[in-house]
Amino acid sequence: MPTRYRAQDLKQFASDLFASSGLARERADVMAETFLQADLMGFTTHGLHRVASNLHWLKSGASRMSGEHNVLSDRESCFNWDADFLPGPWVVNQAIDQALARVGEQGVVTGVIRRSQHIACLAAYLPKIVERNCVGILACSTPAERTVSPQGCKTPLFSANPIAFCAPAADYPLLFDISMSVTAGGYVARAEREGKRLPEKYLKDRDGNLSDDPAAFANGGSILPVGAADHGYKGAALSAMLEVLSMGLGGYGRADQVAEDDEANSVFLQIIDPKAFGSEQNFLRQTAALTHLWESCETDDGDSVRVPGKRAWNLREDQMANGVSLYPTIVEDLNQLAEAHAKAFPEPIG
């Protein structure tokens, strides 16, 4: 049986670490909750794994400890914020809360944020949206990052450019969080740390040769877009679309001097209230039918059908009730942080 930890204990531990840097407790709690939500749903490369980097940014001044975002424009149904390097999980949660407060009247609320410190796992923000019976779309890009090469190129241009989506359905929501790169940078870094090869040739080395060796990326190579070597033009096109929605609408990105921005993100978010379009019951009838039909599809190999959201939502419910099972290297890293900051790491359950 894997070692498990109480979800609340992990949240408190992460919050204590952030608060020890001087961050206000309210903000520390929001950040800790965001990282925990990622691990609850199985997104282990961008959950509590990112506590160390966010703590470093706070202490170094790369993340702004206090103050508020700057409102660049606001038309109630759409807004544009400059986060000015506020911690990503804090400012994105603030934006989602504002959108949720307005969506009942507006029907659809769209927001963009520039210069938000790294926002980590997009899926971590979805539960509060879907629990309000709303549809959510969240995407981000990183102006200073060039890690993904367009189809047929060896020069990296795009960042990973993830998009996340949620919609209420029947027993579980439709929910996903996917990058426009064929694999996420976090998985490449994890494979390098563990001395492993990637499952397929997801990378190019700096000379443009396909590779499954994480060192090829570390030594100046790139990650392939969604669609990989054969159909990567699809991923490159989607990457461009997401950069337009985040950097383009935000008015800040590729055309600017962004070298000092490091991992700071440009963010696009949209929240939709199905009731603005008709009966909520009719909406849920359609989404439930979709998930049920999907589950009834005959598979190629006899395994169960994987409908986006089912595994993550069921895992979240299980881990909230029975404890969180952390990826081994995350436990190693959190124990090091506990020792360095004189904080007691939570005791495992049982």
UniProtKB/TrEMBL annotation:
This is LDH2 family malate/lactate/ureidoglycolate dehydrogenase. It comes from Microbulbifer hydrolyticus. SUPFAM superfamilies: L-sulfolactate dehydrogenase-like. Keywords: Oxidoreductase. Belongs to the LDH2/MDH2 oxidoreductase family. The lineage of its organism: Bacteria, Pseudomonadati, Pseudomonadota, Gammaproteobacteria, Cellvibrionales. InterPro entries: Mal/L-sulf/L-lact_DH-like_ah, Mal/L-sulf/L-lact_DH-like_NADP, Mal/L-sulfo/L-lacto_DH-like_sf, Malate/L-lactate_DH-like. It comes from the Bacteria. The keyword Cytoplasm does not apply. GO terms for molecular function: oxidoreductase activity. The keyword Manganese does not apply.
